[in-house]
Design a protein that fits this description.
- By secondary structure, the protein is α/β, with parallel strands linked by helices.
- The chain contains six helices and 18 strands.
- The chain has helices at residues 22-29, 106-109, 155-163, 189-196, 205-216, 262-272; strands at 9-12, 15-18, 37-42, 48-51, 58-61, 67-68, 78-85, 89-94, 101-103, 120-122, 127-130, 136-142, 145-148, 167-168, 179-181, 184-185, 201-202, 229-230.
- It has a five-stranded antiparallel sheet with strand order 4-3-12-11-9, with no helix packed on it.
- Helix 4 (189-196) packs parallel to helix 6.
- The longest helix has 12 residues, at 205-216.
- This is Nibrin.
- One of its GO terms (molecular function) is damaged DNA binding.
- It holds the Pfam family FHA.
Length: 274
Amino acid sequence: RRFVNKFDCFRVGSCLINFVKFSNVRQKLFPLKIIKMWFLKNIKNATVYYIRPDVKKHVVARSTGNLNIANDKSISRNHAFLFPESSDSLKLVDAGSRYGTFLNHAIESNRDEIPKDVPVRLRKGDRVRFGMCDSLWQVDRVEFRCITSTISVTVGLERTLRKLGGTLDNAFQHGKTGFLVMTTITTTPKLLMSLIGQIPVVTPEFFEACLRAVEGGKVLPDPEGFIPEFTEAYVRREGISFGKIPAREKLFVGLTFIFIKPQHMTVYEGIVKM
């Protein structure tokens, strides 16, 4: 199999098929799996370790792994493994460590460590301790599920999102869409839905900053620092905010809208019903 590109042609039986739009065709033929970005946050010192989905196995070790826990003699050379799964799960395996790996209630009792070499599924909010000292972590996750408006998706943006476990959808989905990506802000239906739905509007550079944070083990950047420039020529800019404003969620509650033309209703019905 191979990906088809814009203007590619191929024959199926007696039919000659010409693909003219690369992005939509690729998503229909080979839909992207949605993998959330899991991370562990150290409860003692707030250190963050991101479990990148493009790395199939993360090794918890004393000095030669992916998550290295130094100055702790209870950590084995290869202590445990973390496996990000495409089915929206994170699995933990104790690699036969000497002092064990503990989960949730077993942390306080120092007994009932997880079995050796047996995968255990982790969930958001779980607490994990490696060894017998202070290596105590909380499990969390973030999802980069994005839509775009008025921009052409670049290979660089797709590559960055893939490393973050993110996806690019075609349409806004209430309760699922996480970010709207624009280079400059102009009024579009996707923008209005995002503002009402409290979805951050960011430039592509936001995801590059996220990837740098992941690679450096730092806290993810604030989307408010990556809001695109507003470029509407006939709208006054003073006092306009494109950040989260909770009052917008009820902006159209109790109002009745009358559309003169059916096509206007098609475009704006989803917005006023939010």
